[in-house]
Design brief:
Elements: E1 3-6, E2 22-30, E3 39-48, E4 53-60, H1 70-73, H2 77-80, H3 86-97, E5 101-104, H4 107-120, E6 129-132, H5 133-139, H6 149-155, H7 166-187, E7 193-195, E8 257-261, H8 268-277, E9 281-283, E10 292-295, H9 303-311, E11 315-316, H10 318-325
Parallel strand pairs: 2-5, 5-6, 8-9, 8-10, 10-11
Antiparallel strand pairs: 1-4, 2-3, 3-4, 6-7
Helix pairs in contact: 5-7, 6-7
C-alpha cells in the first residue's frame, strides 16, 4: 500500500532568501467534494527549497464508506477494503508535511480534506502555510487557456500518465511547480502563501456515512456534489431585522449579517451554527448589506474579501469574532 522513493538532483545557485525552505507537493483523491467526504488515496512529493525532488510517498486509504465516483479515480470498494485507515497513516503523512509549505492545485480543497481527516483522528496536521499553483500561475501571468492541472502541465511540457491517480497527479504537479518556482524566483515574485489553521473541532453527519457504491456517472451515492465541494445547508431564517454594519469597539447585535471566508480553526459549520444560535444572520455571499466579514486571511484575493474592500465592510479574524459572540446585543423590541 505504501511507497517511498528517494532521489537527488542539482539546484540553481541563486535563490531569494525569503522563500520557504521546503515544499510538500500533495494530491488527494476523495470519495467526493463535500465536507463529510473522505480521502481514499494520498501522495506527497517532498521538494527542497529550490523545487528539486527529495522523495515521494503514496498510500491508499480505507474511507470506511463507499468510494464515490469510481469512474473518476478507479478505486473500488474491493481495492480499498484492505487499505489502512487514515489514522494508521496519519503519522507517516505528518512526517512528509512537517515544516514544509503544502503545495497543491486548488490547495484550499486538499488542505481542508487533510485537516478534516486529522481532526477526525483527533490530531492536527503539521501544516502552517499552503501555496496554490493556480494562484501562482496567475501571479506569473502564464498564458493558460484555463486553470486545469493538464493545462499547467502542457505549458511546461510535463506528460501526464494517469489522471486522477494521486501519485501521478502529485508527480505532474511537482514537475510543473519546479519551473514555476524558478520563474517566480527569477522575477522576484512574492509567492502567494496563505496561512493554514488546523481544525480543532469536527463532527460528521451520520447520514453521510451511509450510501452505496456508484458504478457510473448516473449512479447515486453519499454526498458527492459535482462542481461544489461544500454543499448548501438550509438554516431557519433569522427572525431579527438587520441593524446595519458592525462598528469597531462595539457589540454585535442580533440580526447582523455575518459572512465567512477562508480557513477557520473551528470547523466552519460549527462556527456558523454558533453565530446563528446567537441571533445573527449567516450570509453565504457578500453584499452592501453585510454587517461583518470574518476571515483569517484579510490579505487574500477571495471574492468575499475583495467585495468587503469594495463595500467598506468591517473585517475581523476568527479569534476576535469568538470574543464578540460572547456578548451579542439583543435585537430591538
Amino acid at each position: 500500500m505504501l511507497e517511498d522513493h528517494t532521489t537527488t538532483a542539482s539546484s540553481p545557485t541563486e535563490w531569494p532568501t525569503a522563500y520557504p525552505q521546503g515544499y510538500a507537493v500533495v494530491d488527494v483523491e476523495t470519495t467526493g467534494l463535500a465536507r463529510d467526504d473522505r480521502i481514499i488515496s494520498a501522495a506527497v512529493y517532498r521538494l527542497d527549497a529550490r523545487g528539486e525532488v527529495e522523495d515521494h510517498w503514496y498510500t491508499l486509504v480505507n474511507p470506511e464508506r463507499d468510494p464515490g465516483p469510481v469512474w473518476i479515480h478507479g478505486l473500488t470498494s474491493e481495492v480499498l477494503e484492505g487499505a489502512p485507515l487514515f489514522r494508521d497513516v496519519a503519522e507517516e503523512f505528518a512526517v512528509r508535511l512537517d515544516g514544509r509549505v503544502l503545495v497543491a492545485h486548488n490547495a484550499v480543497f486538499d488542505w481542508q480534506m487533510i485537516a478534516r481527516e486529522y481532526a477526525r483522528a483527533e490530531r492536527e496536521a503539521p501544516v502552517r502555510q499552503r501555496l496554490c499553483t493556480i494562484a501562482l500561475s496567475k501571479e506569473l501571468a502564464l498564458p493558460l487557456p484555463n486553470h486545469k492541472l493538464e493545462s499547467l502541465a502542457a505549458h511546461f511540457g510535463v506528460v501526464q500518465q494517469r489522471a486522477h491517480h494521486a501519485l501521478d497527479d502529485a508527480r505532474v504537479l511537482a514537475e510543473a511547480f519546479r519551473p514555476s518556482l524558478r520563474a517566480a524566483a527569477a522575477g522576484g515574485v512574492r509567492l502567494p502563501l496563505l496561512e493554514c489553521r488546523p481544525l480543532t473541532e469536527w463532527t460528521d453527519r451520520p447520514s453521510a456515512l451511509i450510501g452505496r457504491q456508484a458504478s457510473g456517472p448516473g449512479g447515486g451515492y453519499g454526498s458527492y456534489r459535482p462542481g461544489s465541494w461544500r454543499p448548501s445547508r438550509k438554516r431557519p431564517a433569522c427572525p431579527h431585522p438587520n441593524p446595519g454594519r458592525y462598528e469597531d469597539g462595539k457589540r454585535l447585535k442580533q440580526g447582523m449579517r455575518v459572512a465567512f471566508s477562508g480557513d477557520t480553526s473551528v470547523e466552519r459549520e460549527l462556527l456558523e451554527d454558533r453565530a446563528a444560535e446567537a441571533g445573527l444572520h449567516v450570509a453565504t455571499s457578500m453584499s452592501r448589506l453585510t454587517s461583518l466579514l470574518v476571515t483569517n486571511d484579510p490579505g487574500s484575493g477571495t471574492s468575499k474579501v475583495v467585495k468587503a474592500r469594495q463595500f467598506g465592510t468591517p473585517v475581523v479574524d476568527e479569534a476576535a469574532f469568538g470574543q464578540l459572540l460572547r456578548d451579542v446585543e439583543p435585537a430591538d423590541g
